[in-house]
Amino acid sequence: MLQIRTACTKEFARVQNFYYELIDAMQEAPYSPGWKKDIYPTREYLADAIALDTLYIGEEEEKIAACMIVNHAYNPKYNDVSWQVDAADTELLIIHTLGVLPAFSGRGIAKKMVEKALDIARAQGKRAVRLDVLKGNLPAERLYTGMGFTYLETLQMYYEDTGWTDYQAFEYLIRPRK
C-alpha cells in the first residue's frame, strides 16, 4: 500500500537515487520528461525542497515508488498564461518533478500523488493547482485531464534540461468545501 509523506533531510541520497533511477529508466521511454541528472532536478533543488518540507515521497514495499515537489514557485512564463482564476502566488500550489518508477507503473500511484497535492491545496485554502507538461508527454496529459485539470495553452518555456521547448499549461481549480 502506498504511503505518501514529506521527505526528511536524512533521505536526500534516497531521493536523489530515485531521480537518477527514474531518469535512466526513462531514457528509452517513448514519453520521457526530458530530465537530466543533476541538471533537472538539481541536487540543490532537491535539498531545498526537502528542507522546506515540499518534497513528497510515495513509498511502497519500503522503496520510493514516486516523488514530487509541491510549492509556490513557477517558471516566469507562467505569467503569460491566461489562467482560469487570477490568484496570488500564496493562493497557488505548483506540482513539479512528479515521477513514478516504471517498476511501479500501472498501480495508480501518479494519480494518488496528484490527489495528495490537491488535498494539500484544499487543507491550505489554495485557489488552484498548476503545472506544466512537456508537450507530447501523453501519459501525463491523460493523467491530469482525467483528474479534472484543464489544459489552457501550449507555450515555449526555458528549463536547463530541455532548453526552449513547448510545454502545456494545466490548472485545477480548488472548490471550497461546503
Query: What is the radius of gyration?
Result: 15 Å
Task: Specify the structural class.
Answer: alpha+beta
Outline type: globular
CATH class: Alpha Beta
**SSE succession:** EHHEEEHEHEE
The amount of helix comes to: 25-40%
Tell me about this structure.
This protein has helices at 12-26, 43-51, 109-123, 138-146; strands at 3-6, 55-60, 63-71, 92-100, 128-134, 150-159, 163-173. It has a single domain (3-173), classed as Aminopeptidase, CATH 3.40.630. It is α+β, with helices and mostly antiparallel strands. β6 (150-159) and β7 (163-173) form a beta hairpin. A seven-stranded mixed β-sheet has the order 1-2-3-4-5-7-6, with helices on both faces. Helices cover 27% and strands 31% of the residues. It is built from four helices and seven strands. The protein starts with a strand and ends in a 5-residue tail after the last strand.
Ordered list of secondary-structure elements with their pairings:
Blueprint: E1 3-6, H1 12-26, H2 43-51, E2 55-60, E3 63-71, E4 92-100, H3 109-123, E5 128-134, H4 138-146, E6 150-159, E7 163-173
In short:
This protein is of the alpha+beta class and 178 residues long. It has helices at residues 12-26, 43-51, 109-123, 138-146; strands spanning 3-6, 55-60, 63-71, 92-100, 128-134, 150-159, 163-173.
